[in-house]
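[step 3/7] inverse_fold.run input=structure_tokens len=150
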């Protein structure tokens, strides 16, 4: 699915950008913990792909809500100008938004998107085997709950 605009639901959570992640994936949960630690400006809000919000956002962007193999970021998700990034585009957007030193990873954007997405797909295909899988979505810590939808 190419990056595409999407309309977003109104939410009372922090952050102008919505990160949609596979709630039972070990790699995704490590990424989530990383973002909670390093997103000092709190620009990200989170929802699992398994949640009603996650499924609605993916469907609105033209994706298959049952497909949990991609990582999505809906930039400015509370506005009519919302934009959906997927796969490597989502990863590069996140790195850019985190600021220094993570923004340096944006240098990978000079590589062809098809190559970056192939690397992304390889990791996504093997993530459960390498990083494990949980039986259910992890519950966020009390101090982080305001940044989660659903």
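[step 3/7] decode complete -> sequence:
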């Amino acid at each position: 699915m190419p990056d595409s605009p999407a309309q977003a639901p109104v939410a009372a959570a922090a952050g102008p950008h919505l990160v949609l992640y596979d709630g039972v994936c070990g790699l995704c949960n490590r990424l989530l913990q990383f973002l909670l630690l390093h997103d000092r400006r709190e620009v990200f809000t989170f929802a699992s792909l398994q949640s009603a919000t996650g499924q609605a956002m993916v469907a609105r962007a033209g994706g298959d809500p049952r497909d949990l193999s991609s990582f999505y970021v809906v930039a400015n998700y509370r506005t009519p100008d919302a934009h959906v990034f997927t796969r490597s585009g989502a990863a590069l957007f996140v790195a850019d938004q985190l600021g220094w030193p993570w923004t340096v990873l944006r240098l990978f954007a000079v590589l062809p998107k098809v190559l970056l997405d192939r690397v992304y797909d390889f990791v996504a295909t093997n993530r459960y085997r390498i990083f494990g899988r949980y039986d259910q979505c992890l519950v966020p810590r009390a101090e982080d709950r305001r940044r989660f939808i659903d």
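[step 4/7] annotate
Residues 4-13 have pLDDT under 50 and may be disordered.
The two ends are 24 Å apart (CA to CA).
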